[in-house]
Design brief:
The chain is of the alpha+beta class. It folds into two domains: 44 residues; 117 residues, Rieske [2Fe-2S] iron-sulphur domain (Rieske Iron-sulfur Protein, 3-layer Sandwich). The chain has three helices and eleven strands. Strands 1, 2, 3, 4, 9, 10 and 11 form a seven-stranded antiparallel beta sheet that branches. A four-stranded antiparallel beta sheet has the order 5-6-7-8, with no helix packed on it. The relative contact order is 0.12. The chain binds FE2/S2 (inorganic) cluster.
Amino acid sequence: MSEEIEKKKPAPAKPKAKGKKDEAQDTLWSRRDFFSLAGWGAFMASLGLSSLYFLRLLFPRVLFEPSPKFKAGNPEDYTVGEVSTKWVGDQRVWVVRDEEKLYAILARCTHLGCTPLWLKTEGKYKCPCHGSGFTMDGMNFEGPAPRPLERLKVEIGPDGQIVIDKSKKFLFEKGEWGKPGSFLRA
Ligand code: FES
């Protein structure tokens, strides 16, 4: 009986051999798929780039420069006849106090900009780069430095502390060392 049933079962249909027309259609579809995918890819890439550009506009590159002004304590903190090197590391500034006044000198050699050292025993600033020397008040006297050191604006802030402003310079060669703001009366 089962043999009869098996005999009656229709033989599985042979897969139709693809005609030239079908093959052409397959190729056409795969090409269409490829171009469609490529199109989407390009679209998404351009969308991504536009979004990045837009985000970049939202967060502009801003350089936060440190303030040129800083508080340097009270005038009484400085000893008469001495050069304070307290601010050289952080601010590149010496504070000098003599009998009559207090002033700030920028610790930058006027030759090529190195930071000189204050040599207390010799009573001078000495540049380690090419040997320029400056007196305690900043006058150049040896080596290639062409002019004296620069002084900076000093004033007393509302809280009684000294405020040094590195954005305002006073140059000896322009006759500015006696100008208001270039020193504080002791
Ligand atoms: Fe100071 Fe040259 S940079 S002597």
